[in-house]
Structures are given as C-alpha cells and as structure tokens.
Amino acid sequence: MLAAKGMRFPIDVILVCIRWYAAYPLSYRHLEEMMEERGVFVDHSSINRWAIRFLPLLEKVFCKYKRPVGGSWRMDETYIKVKGVWKYLYRAVDKEGKTVDFLLTAQRDKAAAMRFFDKAMQANDVPEKVTMDKSGSNKAAIDEINARSETPIIVRQVKYLNNIVEQDHRAIKRVTKPMLNFKSFCAAKCVLAGIELMHMIRKGQLMLQGCREMSFADQFYALAGKIRPI
C-alpha cells in the first residue's frame, strides 16, 4: 500500500482527497470544506501538495497495468491555462476511444509533436495509422518519424475522423475548469497525470486481477496498493 514517511494524515485520507480532486470538478477549497464536514481538518494547501506528490506516482504505476491500445490512433491537442498563459496538452486515443498517451508542452510546434509521438510510441509501440487535423507541425513530426522507419505510419488528415479525440478532451476540461488556473507548469503536469489516470480507469483500461468487478473507487485503491512504501 502507498505510504509516506512524515505525513501527518493517514494515507487513506490522502488517497480520498487526491482521488476526488482528480476525478471530479472540484477545487482544493471545495475539498477542504468536504473533509471538514467529515471531521477531518486539512488545509487546501496540504491537498495541493499531496496531489503534486502522489498523482504522478500513481499514473506511473498505472502504466505497468494498462491494457494495450489499438493500432489506429486519433491525435489532437487542446489548451490548458498555466499562470494565465495557454499551454498545450497533446493527447491521442485509439479508434475505440481508449487513451493512448498525453503530454503537456509549452509550445505547439514540430518539436513538441515529436516529443509526444516518441513518448506515446515508446509506451504503446508504433501505430499502423494516425489520424490528425490539418496541423502542419503534427504532420511534419510524423513525416520525420516515417523517414527513419522501415514501415511508414499511414497518416490521415480528415477532421471528422478526429471527432472521437476532440470529444474525449471534454472529460479532461470538465475536471480542470473548477481549478481555475494552474500556478506552475510542474503542478499542471502532475495534476493532469492524475486526471488522465482517473479517465483511463473509468474507460476500463486498468488491467488488474478482478478489476472488472470492482467499482471505480476500488480500482483506484487497488492500484495504490501496488506502490511500494516511500
């Protein structure tokens, strides 16, 4: 079970707070009030620190138990505001809507698209097809990948075929909206890892024994049980 030295609160309290924060459209102050109603007095800044510390850990462990995705990807980017400035969240799903991967970047260019594709392919193998919008930078990134590959990836730039990933963005934006504004790029990356994690669990992408019979919450706690004490 996930545990941490020097924490004043029990780990089950920490897990409840970060699960609610990453799974539902809530702010840290909402959670502070909700926990107080349950007799737990925790400052919203503590919940913030827990989210930044533990959510990336949970997402990293999830990758070891993630169900394989299909070879036909839909790739797109959406906007996330950090310190009042728009940043770019690159995301891809397969044709069934299962999350392939995600990456928050400061710029929207070929280099950023390359980093996203390299990350996604390292974790999920090389796709047969990638569907994207008319973005020149995304196409340039795939062209470079194809130039160094024996088997080229088929590229489709057809907008209506990309509706599935554009619709999938909404689940992420719904949760980030009450957060108002991330205060740092690092904090945004950490929290988004948790939000994407929760979204993947909801979509049945966790591959643990018996998880199909578990509730959404129980799958999360079973995953937390796979983390070594820290």
Automatic annotation (TrEMBL):
Keywords: DNA recombination, DNA-binding, Plasmid, Transposition. Pfam families: DDE_Tnp_IS240 (PF13610). One of its GO terms (molecular function) is DNA binding. SUPFAM superfamilies: Ribonuclease H-like. Coiled coil: none annotated. InterPro entries: DDE_dom (IPR032874), IS_Transposase (IPR052183), RNaseH-like_sf (IPR012337), Transpos_IS6 (IPR047930). Residues 72-205 form the DDE domain. This is Transposase. The keyword DNA-binding applies. GO terms for biological process: DNA recombination; transposition.
